[in-house]
Design brief:
The protein is of the alpha+beta class. The protein folds into 3 domains: about 60 residues, no CATH class; about 220 residues, no CATH class; about 80 residues, Sandwich (Immunoglobulin-like), CATH 2.60.40. It is built from 14 helices and 17 strands. A 4-stranded antiparallel beta sheet has the order 8-7-9-10, with helices on one face. The chain has a 4-stranded antiparallel beta sheet with strand order 14-13-16-17, with no helix packed on it. Helix 9 crosses helix 11.
């Protein structure tokens, strides 16, 4: 379903101004976004949307963002050209504006901003300058693709919010221009968590720590995929620029980034973040967040396969009931509707790696259909697509 961009602007404006319960001024929104070319659109109006209408529209938007494969027929240089042509933002905020926007409108949560690598948090007083307040509290801005490796000061890459993140100052300094890598625990020089920097292996909660040596930096486990997709983005969008500065920097970490991309799939918060950034960057999201197969096709073809994000695919989830029968060794799909459905199912492990692709089934009304497959104990995700709906189901396999 396609939602007109002008309608999206109105909705986003309402969300933007809802805390003060003000009517939406679409002229103001368009001006802020520098989209003057659509200000004369006949749909433009000033309105105050009630909460029910907002909820309905947000549901529609959610359905409209089910993930699709981008440029499925392209590869190599043609695929890179398509990504650059369609996702390079022409409008980017100044660096000062980008930081303030990121802190005050996108990454603020419960009145605080947290560092990406350590979750160290600083309270953000909404009436004060965001960047100044956070810096006084020990947080500054990390360039995930480093300035010294191609995201050079004064260029669009330097201020592109898709790879900017809050970071504890000391951790940002220690990371510097280092490449990302997996670091063995015994080789780690420093461990970072909240306001801690320690030199010994943590006794507990080790996955919450980022790690560093004099040569490499390893983010905490839960943001590794986010970091990888930010790296893919800058390397693709500004390929010539970053390669001219350091032609080997990306390649030496590419394999680890691919593994992180597959093992830490996109979640709703990462998707929400790229959509919010796009509001201020010419409407251009990070395509590697929108389509996990893009990294697979451009960088990671020899490493694995990924699971498409299923945000917006939860509609009609009760139409089918899906479970695994360990006694018979079968995946069972029950049709709870009053219709016959031709369905295509795919199966993924919890890391997002595809196990079985496009199982074609015709499922009659109230019928149980079994598909024989030997699954070891664990958690799995089944995606199901019919002409009427798309859904996903989490199943648990026990002995």
């Amino acid at each position: 379903m396609e939602i007109p961009k002008i309608a999206l602007l109105v909705i986003l404006g309402q969300i933007w101004e809802r805390s003060e319960n003000r009517p939406v001024n679409v002229d103001h929104i368009l001006s802020e976004m520098k989209l003057n070319s659509v200000r004369n659109n006949p749909y433009r109006t000033k309105m105050k949307l009630n909460s029910v209408f907002i909820l309905m529209l947000l549901v529609l938007i959610n359905f409209s963002h089910a993930q699709n494969i981008l440029f499925p027929d392209l590869s190599g240089a043609e695929l890179l050209d398509a990504v650059q042509s369609n996702y390079t933002p022409n409008l980017i905020l100044s660096y000062a504006e980008a930081r303030d926007t990121l802190y005050s409108k996108i990454d603020v949560e419960n009145d605080s901003v947290r560092g990406i690598y350590t979750t160290y948090a600083v309270f953000l007083d909404p009436v004060q300058d965001p960047t100044s307040v956070l810096f006084a509290g020990g947080i500054n801005t990390e360039h995930i693709y480093p300035q010294g490796r191609g995201a050079t000061d004064g260029t669009p890459a330097y201020r592109n919010m898709h790879h900017l993140a809050a970071s504890r100052v000391e951790v940002n300094q220690d990371r510097g221009n280092l490449p990302f890598s997996e670091i063995s625990d015994n080789a780690t020089d420093n461990w970072y968590y909240k306001d801690l920097k320690i030199s010994t292996i943590p006794a507990s909660g080790i996955n919450n720590y980022s790690e560093g040596t004099s040569q490499f930096f390893e983010p905490r486990e839960s943001v590794k995929g986010n970091v990888a997709r930010a790296m893919f983005y800058i390397h693709a969008i500004y390929r010539d620029q970053v390669m001219a500065v350091d032609p080997t920097f990306f390649e030496e970490q590419r394999q680890n980034l691919c593994i992180w991309h597959f093992n830490d799939p996109v979640d709703n918060s990462e998707l929400w973040r790229t959509e919010q950034i796009a509001i201020y960057q010419d409407g251009k999201e990070n395509p590697f967040v929108l389509d996990c197969t893009l990294a697979e096709r451009m960088y990671c073809s020899s490493i694995g396969a990924c699971m498409l994000s299923t945000r917006g695919m939860h509609r009609d989830q009760d139409s089918f009931h899906v479970y695994y029968n360990s006694g018979t060794g079968c995946l069972v799909i029950r049709n709870n509707t009053n219709q016959t459905h031709a369905a295509s199912l795919s199966l993924f492990n919890i890391s997002g790696k595809k196990i079985v692709s496009e199982i074609k089934l015709v499922i009659q009304h109230t019928e149980d259909v079994s598909y024989a497959i030997d699954l070891p104990p664990g958690t799995y995700v089944v995606t199901c697509a019919t002409e009427q709906f798309r859904s996903r189901y989490r199943i648990f396999v026990t002995n």
